Amino acid sequence: MSVPDLSVSCRFADYFAICGLDFDSGLEPDRLCGDNLHVSPLDRSYKGKILAHYPENVPSNQFDEHATCMLCLPAGLQFRTQKHSLEPQFHSFVVTRENASRYYGFSLIFYEEVRNKNICSAMHTLQAMYITELSSGQTPPGHRKSSGKESSRSLPRSFKLTPHTGAALTYFDIAKDKLYVAKSIALICQYPFVRVAQMFLENLFRSLPRQPGPGLSPESYVYNLLYEVPVPLPGQALRLYVPPPQPHLEAIPVVIRMPNPPEELPLLDYSLRVMFSNLGVELVVQLFTCVLLEHQVLLRSTDYNKLMLVSECMVSLLLPFTWAHVYVPILPAPLYHFLDAPVPFVMGLHTDSAAVCANGPRSIALCSEAALCLVDIDKPDIQLPEELPIFPHRTSFIEELNHLMDKYQIQRPETEPTKLSAPLNGTSYRHMNDNMSSSCTLPSGGLRRKHSFHDVLEWEESRPLNASPPASPTRRAPLRPDALQRIADIVKRTGVNIDDVDAETVMPTTKKKILNDEEQYNEDMRFNSAVRETFLNRFVHIFLMYENFVIMPDQDRESWLSSRESMVNFDKASFLSDQPQRHRPFLSRFLETQMFATLIDNKIMANWGEYDVNLQVFEYRTRIVRGRLGEGGLATRGYCVWAGGTGAAAAGGGAELEVDAPAERLPHRAAYYRAFPARLDAHALAAPDLRTNSLKRIKNAKWQVKDCPPELLLGDFSRRLSTEVTPAAIAQNNRTFVEKLLKECKSKTKRMLLEKMGTEESNLGFGSEVSITGVEESTMIASLCDLLERLWSHGLQHKMGKSALWMHLINYQELEQCSNSTKPIDPNYLTPALAWCVLRKRLDYLSSVGAEVEAQQAASVSPRSRDSSRGGSRDSSRDRLSNSGTLERKSTQPVNPLRPLPESLTFDMRNVQAMTDIKTEIGYARAWVRLSLEKKLLSKHLRELLADTTLLRSQYKRTAFLRCEEEREQFLYHLLTLNAVDYYCFTNTYPTTKLPYRVLIMPSRKASQTTANCWISISGMNGESTPKIPIPRNTNEFVFHHKNLGTLSTLRIGHDNSGLSPRWLLDQVYVRNEVTGHTYTYPCNRWLGSGVDDGSTERLLVAARVRSEHTPRSPAPPAALHPHTPTTHLSTSTIQHMIGDCVNAIVKWHYQSKRDKDANSLSVLLCGENGLVKCLEQAFLCGFKSARFFGKNFFIWDYFARVKDEFKMSLCDEPSTMNNKNCGGVSYNCRQDQEHRAIWRCYCHLMDEVNSVGRSLGKDGKFQLFICLSLREHWLHRMLVPMSLTRVTAEMYEEQSFLRKRGLLTFLKQILEPLDEFDIVLENSLTQGI
Question: Which of 60, 278, 713, 1327 is most buried, taking the most CB atoms under 10 A from its CB?
Fold first, then answer.
C-alpha cells in the first residue's frame, strides 16, 4: 500500500476561529439576550463578533458566522475584573444542519486585559449610571427587590464591604480595577475528537510567547492542524502533534484512532466515567428512559462542558437508534424561546445565565411540563415526567452497570440513593413490576404534586447548593448494606467483638492507582466501550427477532420513498405479543417513537444497498448472540449480561501513520505577544496545494489484516470438498437433529405445564411442592412459536415467505377452498405441486360422491335399514346442523342455548386473517398458534393439517421432521398435554383487535316480552367497557363488534320503562366471544321495571365463566341457572364463615402478582354470587323485622334510608347535643362525639351520592353500590357502631341480629377492618361515575 493511498477525504479541522470584542465598533449590548439593564454592567451580556476565521471557506462545510459566535460565547461577551476568577474554560458544542448532519465545535474562553481607554471609560460610565439609579431609590427595569425595606439613597453597603464578597465583585472602579474581556479561540471539526481539540486549544493559549525566547508562532500550529492532519480511515491510527504547554518545549505527539464498524462501536471521545461519576447509575437509567421515549429533556449545570458531555454520552448510548429531534446541548441565551417548542428536544441550560438568575425563572416559558424531564447535573437531581413506564429489566440492568463501575473503580456521587426503594423526587420504584411510576396521589390520601420547572429554578435563589427541594424526600446518606449488617449481628451473637477487628485486615480494599493523563484517557476509552456494549446488549436481546416483523415493500425505492409516510413497515401487535407483559407499557410507547421508525426505514433501505453504520453494528451483534444462544434459547432467556470481547477499541495502541511536526510559518514572527492576536497572518494560513500529502508510514508498524486471504479461503474450501460425506452420515446427522427437536418440544411443553400448574397450586396453598420457574407466560408461548417455526422449516423443498408454518396453513386453506367442485381451479395461482394436490382431492371427492350415490340407491330398497344405518354412521356437517334444532326442541332442558362454534382449522384461520393489527406472516402464524392454544385445539388442528399427506409430500423432503411419523405423533402428544391448563394468550395479547361478541338474553316465561327500549353494556378486564348497546326488538340474540374486552367481568342491563307493559323478568344472559369461544353467563332471576320487585330498571350482573364451553352438550353449572335468592336466611355461624372466606379471598387477591390478578376479578369477589356484598346482605337480613311494618316487604335499603334520616336529624340538633346525652334517639359517649358526627356526615353524603346517581337502580342495586363505595373509602366498618346505636336499629332488628348483639357486631367490625390496608380500585361499571 502506498502512502498516497492512505489519504482521507476530510481534514481533522475545517476552521480555526477567533471570537471576541471588536474595538472598532465598541460596546454593544446583546439585545437577543433580553433586557439586562437591571443588573450591574459587569453582569450584562454584550455583543461579540467573529474577529477572524481560517480558511475563508470549505466547500463541504460552509462557515456559519452567527452560529459559531453564539456557541463559542454562549453567555455573550462578558467582562470581569481582577477580583473574579480568570481561569480559561473549555467547552465543546454541536451544530445540526438542515439535512440532520452535524459538525462539532471546541471553544476555549479566556480573559485578556482591556487596554483600550474608550472601552474602560464606557464601562465606568455604565457603572456610574447603575449606581445612581440604585442610590436614588429608583428601581431599574425588571429589578426585583430582595426585601420590603426602602432602599437607601447612599451607595449600597454591599459595595463598601471587602472587595471579594457579595455584590462588590460586580463593581468596577476605573481607578483601582483592571478590566478584562472574554475572548474565544475555537476549532470547527467534522468528528468529535474532544481530547485532542482540548489539548490543542489549551496548549496553544499557553505556548504563546509572552516574552522573547524560543517558540513557534500560533500560525504554525494552526496551519499544521488545518491542512496537514487528516481524519484517519476506519481501523487506522494516526499520530499528530499538538502545541506544548510551554513555548520552549517541543510539540507533543498524540494518537487518534478511528473505530472500524461493525466490529467496533462508532466514535465517542467523551468520557462516560465523568457522566456516571456526576449523575450515578440510577439517574442515568432514568434519563436514558426519558430520552428513549422522546420526552423533552432539559439539562442544567454551571459548566458548559458538562452539558455537552452528558448530552453526547446519552445520545451515544442510544445505539443503534439515533436522536432525530431538536438537539441543542448548549442553549445560548438568545435562543431561550426554543424551550417553548411543542416537540421533543434535548437541550442544555446554563444555571448562572443572566436570563435565569436575574430576570427570574418566570421569563422562561415551557410548552408542557408534564412531559418534561429536568436534570440538574451539579446536584445531581432529576424531575421525571408523569406516567413514565419502567425500562425492561431495570433492576438487573442497574446491577450490571454497578458491577462495571466497581470493576473500573469509578467513584459514585455522594448523594446517590443506596437502594432502589428510595423515592426520588416523587417517583417511587418500590414496586419494580409496576407498569407506571406513580406521580399523582398517595394511598394515604396525601397529595403529591409534580414540581414545575419554575419551582426548581426558584429554589436555587433561596437555598444552598446541597439542600433538598421543599416538600421532597431528603436524600439519604449511604447506609450500611443489610446483608453486611445481618452478618455482623450473627458474629456478635457468637461472642466475637467485631469492633476490635481492623476492616482492612478482613477485607483489604484495592487502592486505585494514580494515572497520568494518557493512562486515564485509555482507561476511560475502555470503560466507554464496556458501558456502550452493555447498553447495546440490552437492545440486542429486546429486538433479537425484530427482522421477522419488518414488512418489506414489494415496490421499487422511489415508489416506497414517496409513500412511506402512509405505509406500515413493522408489525407492532405481533412483536408485542412475544414480549413479557410487564415490558409492554414501555415497548408499546417506544415502538411509536421516531427513532424506532428510523431504524426500520434504514433496515428497508438496506435492500437497495444503502447501509446505515449503526444498523450494521447492531445486526453484527445480533448474529453473534444468536449463534451463542442457539435457536432453542432465543425466546426463553431472561436477562443476559454482556459477555464481553466485542467491539473493544484498541485504546492506547500504536499508530500506523503520522504527520510531520509543525514548522515555523512566519519568517519573522513577533518577539513576544502581549495578548492572543485578534487576527493571524492570512498569508501564512493560506490553503496549500491539495495534491500534497504529509502522511507517512511509521517504520515497523504492524498492520491489522481485516480480511482473510483468498488463497486461504480457497484452500479451506477445497479441503472441505475433498472430504467424502456418505449417505449414512447424512442420515445419522438428520436423525440426531430430529431427536433434538423432539426433546426440545418435550422440555418446552413440560416447562409450560409446570409454570401454569405451579401458579395455580400456589394460589391454592400448595406452592411449596411445585418449582415455579418465574418465566412469564407470553415469553414461553413465544418460545413455543419459535419451535414450531423451526419444525416447519426443517426439510422444506422450497422456502416461501418468512413463516413456513403460515405458508403451510395457507396452502391447506387453498386446498380446502379448491376442493369445492363448483369453484374452478386457477392454474396461474397454484404451484405445480399444489395443483397436483388439488387434482388428487378432486378425484377423491368424486369417488366418494359416487360411492355415496350407490349406497343411497341400495338403501332405498329398505327404508328401515336406511334409518338404522343413518343412526349408526356419521352424518355430514350439513345434516348435523339441520338436525340440531330438532334435537334441541326434543330436549326438555337445553344445556347450552348458543349454537356451538365450528372447531375447524380454517375457521380459526379466517378469524386471524380478519385481524387488521397484524401485518406479517410471522404475526399471523403466532396469532393462530395463540388462538388455537387458548381454545385447546392446537394439537387437533396440527393433526388435521399434517393428515394431508399429499400436501406434506409436495412441500417437504423425506428426511423432514414432519414426515417422521413416530416423532410427529410424539410431538402432537406433547402438545395435547397443554390442554390440561387454561391459557388466555390470545385474549390478553391483542387488546386493540376488534372482535365479535354474541349476546343471548334468556327471559323468564312469566314475562318474556317488554314494551320498553332495552340496552346492555359489558365490561372486561382490559379496562374497556362498551357503550349502551340497544337490544333489537323481537329478538333475544344478536352480535356486536367491539375492541377486545379481555376476560369479561360485569354486565349492566336495563330499559327506559316505556310502553304499556315495561316489566321484564330476566333469567340470565349469555355472552360469547365469537373468536375464542369463551362463554360467560350472567345470572339474574330478577324483575326489571318500576313498581315490581325492588323497582330497579337496570341491574349489574357479574360474569361466571362456562368452563365446559368447548363441549357442546355439557351441562351448565347449577349456580348459573338457579342462583340462590337473597331472601334465604342462614344461621349466624354460617354467615360468619361466609364473610370470613370473602375477606380472606380479597386479601389474597391484593397480595397476588399482577398477572394472576386477571384470573380472579375483584368485581367477582365483591359482587359475585358468593361475594362480599351478598354475604353482608345476609348479615343485614339476619334478624330483620321487615314483615311487621304494615304487612309490606321492606328491603335493607329502607333501613339505610331511615338511618340516614336519623343521622341528619342528629346533625341538625347539634347545639342541643352539647347538653343532652341522647339526641334524636342516638345514644353515644361524649368522647366519641366528634368521631360519630364525622361518620354521620360521611354516611349522609354517601347516601345522597348514591340516591342522586342511581335513579334507575333498585333498592338492592343501591345497597350494592353503597357497600362498594364505603369499602373503597374505608368507611364501612366505622359506620357499623353508629348505625347500631340508632333507634331505627332497635325497631327494625331483633336482639339476636348482627347489629344488636355485641359479639356479632364486634366480629363484623373486626373482620372488615383489615381491608383498610388496601386501596380497593373499583371498575367504572360498579361506581356509576362516583
Answer: 278
Taking CA atoms, 444 is separated from 441, 447, 736, 1317, in Å, by 8, 9, 62, 10
Own/partner pairs for 560-567, CB < 8 Å, 24+ apart?
Answer: 560/604, 564/601
Cell numbers describing residue 414? 455522594
The pTM (predicted TM-score) of the whole model is 0.71
pLDDT, tens digit, 9 for 90 and up, residues 1301-1313 = 888 888 888 888 8
- Residue pLDDT, tens place only, 1194-1228: 788 888 888 888 888 887 776 555 555 444 444 44
Helix (H, G, I), strand (E, B) or coil at 1145: helix
585, 998 Cβ separation under 8 angstroms? no
Angle, to 10 degrees, between the axis of helix 517-542 and the axis of helix 394-407? Answer: 160
Contact call for residues 986 and 926 (beta carbons, < 8 A):
no
The type of residue at 1038 is F
Nearest-5° Cα angle at 529, 525 to 534? 150
In one-letter notation, the amino acid at residue 1051 is L
Q: Which residues contact 1325 (CB under 8 A, 6 or more apart)?
A: 1017, 1019, 1025, 1049, 1050, 1052, 1100, 1163
Residue carrying C-alpha cell 492507582: 513
Rounded Cα gap, residues 1236 and 1241, in angstroms: 9
Taking the C-alpha atoms of residue 1123 and residue 1169, their distance in angstroms, rounded to an integer, is 7
State how far the Cα of 620 lies from the Cα of 263, in Å rounded to an integer: 7
Q: How far apart are CA 968 and CA 961, in angstroms?
A: 7
Q: What is the pLDDT of residues 58-88, one digit of tens each?
A: 888 889 888 899 899 988 888 888 888 889 9
Which residue, 550, 381, 582, is CA-closest to 463? 381
CA distances from 951 to 789, 810, 813 (A): 18, 11, 11
Q: How far is CA 1130 from the centre of its chain?
A: 51
User: What size, in residues, is the chain?
Assistant: 1330
Q: Read out DSSP for 723-777?
A: S---HHHHHHHHHHHHHHHHHHHHHHHHHHHHHHHHHHHHHHT-GGGS------H
- H helix intervals, 235-303: 272-279, 281-292
The radius of gyration computed from the CA coordinates of the chain, to the nearest angstrom, equals 40
